[in-house]
Amino acid sequence: MREVTCLIVDDEPPMVQRLETYFGRWAERRMPFRLVGRAYSGVEALEKAAELRPDLIITDIVMPGMDGIELVRQLRERLPGVEVIILSAYSDFAYAKQAIAMGVFEYLVKVPLREEDVRTALSKARDNVIAREEKEKRLQSLSGSVKENSYRLRKHLLEELLRGEVSGTVMERRSAELVPGFEPRQFGCFAVRFDNYDVFCTEYSPADRNMLKYGMLNIIEEVLRENGSCFACELQQGVIVALATIRAGSEQSFDRTCYELGERIRDAIKTYLRISISIGVSRMYNGWSSAAAAYEEAKGALEDSFYASFGTVITPNRRLSYSESDWREFTERFEQALERTSSKSGSEALAPLLHVLHSHRIIPGKLLGYMESWCVRLRQRLLSADHDLTTDVVIFADCTHLHQLVERLRIEWEKLHARAEGSGLRLEMVKAMRFVEDHLKESISLGVVAEHIHLNPTYVSELFKKELGVNFTDYVSKRRIERAIELLRKRDYSNLELAEAVGVHNEKYFCTLFKKITGTSPQKFVAANWRG
Q1: pLDDT tens-place string over residues 82-136
Q2: DSSP SS3 for 486
Q3: 264 and 168 inside one domain
Q4: How far apart (Å, rounded) are the C-alpha atoms in residues 232 and 451?
Q5: Considering the domain boundaries, does residue 155 fall inside one?
Q6: Based on the domain organization, do 433 and 339 belong to the same domain?
Q7: Residue range of the domain that includes 471
Q8: Which of 94, 418, 451, 497 sees the fewest Cβ atoms within 10 Å?
Q9: What is the pLDDT of residue 479?
Q10: CB of 124 within 8 A of CB of 106?
Q11: Which GO terms describe its molecular function (predicted)?
Q12: Start-end of H helices in 469-506
């Protein structure tokens, strides 16, 4: 039951004592009125109200010094939400009229003062407090929904802008509605990316991820708006893009200001949300028509963070240069190593390749594509025809930093050589996989599996990547879909039945997951494999 807190204000001690007696009786009857303080003057009442923050104040209207009317006026400035009940020895309508004009909730005559009248007034005031709080919650919720919808509309608008689908005139009109105050004059583009999005998705539920992303958007906007106006949204999974006006007199000053803003964004997100990010920043641009160029430049700067540690800010003056000679020498060394590799090659054969990776600067996208192809050919070279070469193929596309690529290559190298030599999985891995199989119909988290096999969750996560070449979440998703396919071999199921049978409690998400893994829907999969 919502309890209202009350403060009594009266310069006459007998009246204060009388009201205290009422509150004592109401407390014994467990009524929702609690006395938190008393004051004997208007000045003292303001001090007590600021300290105690009561829901309701019961005050005399005629007091020496500051009277009740003046007290109410100052309360309205300092605590606008507090309810006020006026007590007066006078029934003069002029007092009542003044009180009502100032938003006083109730006006009671002290002589005679009846307990029932005070209690009735308190009950009505309590209803008012509750109604106001519920309204504030609804407005807060509505405000959140409006803001969330605004971000969706911003994303759609920015996507259209970058694809060249909206003219400058249309952009000016629509931006005035969605990002009032933003003018595309002397602006830069900030591309903010999670340093390890896979880990972020593993550690947090979808609802928590959305909340944290919303927090990131707020931080980015708050920092950038100290320098000018901005326009931010999550443009793609794991990447937030912001266009921000920057007050700077030269390109050099612009670069320095952007770097400082980037550092502040990075540090605030790390401090408050415990999320590591890297940031790429474009040069200075003007006009809506140049937004696409600014975005491409910011993405390019962000790619340069591949060769730095987590939490890097790359501005135009900090860009890397890539040479064709590095690319030729790099591919030549890796191709030669591939020709010499056999199942007998140990970890010492990998060390020179890792040195090449660290000593050459290759455009990240180009490098990652080459490494995927190279690892496919490594599989073909090391594994015999009786191995399934299409399962658990290593993917490098989501590596955002060099050390991630190096670690993934090291694990793939060890795994392929172990399979070529015929060695099996670790006992802990077998236990973890068995637990997943036994609990596919339930909600399975990395923490639960780690607890079952008595290991640290971080270690178990790395174990899945090292032993199987996939992260824990992808492994569980793959096994759920494989289980669904096994069920479909036996009889027809509806999508909802299949989803529930393999522990996915959302039919739409199940269908999305099925298509992601198999390339088609459950019904088309059945038709292509068993009805043709």
Answers
A1: 889 988 776 555 565 666 666 677 888 887 888 998 999 999 889 888 888 887 7
A2: helix
A3: yes
A4: 40
A5: no
A6: no
A7: 426-531
A8: 94
A9: 85
A10: yes
A11: DNA-binding transcription factor activity; sequence-specific DNA binding
A12: 472-490, 495-501
Tokens of 386: 């009786």
> Which domain CATH number covers 450?
1.10.10.60
Q: Structural domain tally of the chain?
A: 4
What CATH number is associated with residue 93?
3.40.50.2300
pLDDT in tens, 15-24: 999 999 999 9
- How far apart CA 488 and CA 523 sit, in angstroms, is 9
In this structure, are 342 and 287 located in the same domain? no
Helix (H, G, I), strand (E, B) or coil at 113: coil
What single-letter amino acid sits at 10? D
Q: What order of strands is seen across the sheet that includes strand 33-39?
A: 33-39, 4-9, 56-60, 83-88, 106-109
Per-residue CA distances from 249 to 225, 246, 257, 284 (Å): 18, 10, 10, 11
Where do we find the tokens 């003069």? 92
The answer to whether residue 460 is domain-embedded is yes
What is the residue whose two structure tokens read 């519920």?
134
Q: Are 301 and 281 in contact (CB under 8 A)?
A: yes
Nearest to 395 by CA among 470, 328, 506: 470
| Domain at 240, CATH number | 3.30.70.270
Q: Which segments of 8-114 does DSSP mark as H helices, in order? A: 13-28, 42-52, 68-78, 93-101
CA separation for the pair 152, 274 (Å, rounded): 25
Determine how many CB atoms are found less than 10 A away from the CB of residue 203: 18
Q: Does 276 lie in the same domain as 326?
A: no
Same domain, 349 and 275: no
Question: HSE-up of 290 (CA within 13 Å, CB side)?
Answer: 17
Tokens of 192: 């903010």
**507-to-491, 502, 503, 504, 514 alpha-carbon distances in Å:** 18, 11, 11, 7, 10
Pairing status of strand 33-39 against strand 56-60: unpaired
CA 515 to chain centre: 26
Q: What is the average pLDDT across 408-419?
A: 79
Taking the chain, what is the end-to-end CA distance rounded to the nearest angstrom?
A: 65
43: its two tokens: 């000045």
Instruction: Report the C-alpha gap between 296 and 281 in whole angstroms.
Output: 10
Does residue 488 lie within any of the structural domains? yes
**Is 148 inside a domain boundary?**
no
Domain boundary (388, 409, 424) is at: 424
406 and 485 co-located in one domain: no
Quickly state the pLDDT bin for 432 (edges 50, 70, 90).
Answer: confident
Whether 251 and 182 map to the same domain: the answer is yes
Q: What percentage of the chain's residues is helix, strand, coil (to nearest 5)? A: 60, 10, 30
Residue 409 sits in the same domain as residue 446: no
**CB neighbours of residue 326 within 10 Å:** 16
For 397, the token pair is 């596309």
